[in-house]
Amino acid sequence: MLDRAPDVSDDPAGEVAALTAVQRRIDHPSVVRAARAMSFFGEHAAGWIALGAAGAALDRPRRRQWVTATAGVVAAHGTSIVVKRVVRRPRPHDPRVAVHVGTPSRLSFPSSHATSTTAAAVLFGGLLGRPGAVLPTVPAMALSRLVLGVHYPTDVLAGSALGVACALGARRLIARGSVGRWRTA
User: What is the pLDDT of residues 32-91, one digit of tens each?
Assistant: First the structure.
């Protein structure tokens, strides 16, 4: 525990305070286990890539759209990594923040998990014709990154915004007819 009261100047944007507030409210072993499972699923967008590949294999009439949507998720993930390397914001490192999982990098902004999850929700939801069914994964993944103590709130918000931008870019390519069409929300 802390032996001194947190100094607001140590957290000028209130991000550590927000992060620790989330952790205090929902830090329970079952929540942490679920967050770790989500982290594993979203690592390097692997779970979303696997779901996209399954969609391409199972939905033969729209295979091209599934492949394009999956490529959009991969592009979103790659874009987040590029932004991370440009911004170079370190992950939370404060004694008030409990870190519950290891990470492949020390860079925090934006959250690649939030980016690829949002892109997958928008793109795969459009293919399924039920975008609302997939959208709850976005706040769940974003929240899991806070529960695990590996991102600040603005990391996950920026990641989600980047995921939407990448998904809309992929949809534009599809709308032009160069890679197929699908029903979108």
Answer: 999 999 999 999 999 999 999 999 999 998 888 889 899 999 999 999 999 999 999 999
Q: pTM of the predicted model, to two decimals?
A: 0.85
CA–CA separation, 98 vs 160, rounded Å? 23
90 secondary structure, DSSP code: B
* Amino acid in the structure at residue 48: W
Token reading at 97 = 């923040």
Which of 24, 6, 8 has the alpha carbon at shortest distance from 95?
Answer: 6
In sequence order, the 6+-apart residues with CB closer than 8 A to the CB of 59 are 66, 127
The 3-class secondary structure across 112-155, one letter per residue, is HHHHHHHHHHHHHHHHHCCHHHHCCHHHHHHHHHHHCCCCCHHH
- Are 65 and 127 contacting, i.e. CB atoms less than 8 angstroms apart? yes
66 close to 170: Cβ distance less than 8 angstroms: no
Ranges assigned E (strand) in the chain: none
The single-letter code of the amino acid at 180 is: G
At 181 the pLDDT is 52
pLDDT at residue 147 greater than cutoff 90? yes
Q: SS3 for 8? A: helix
Amino acid type, 17: A
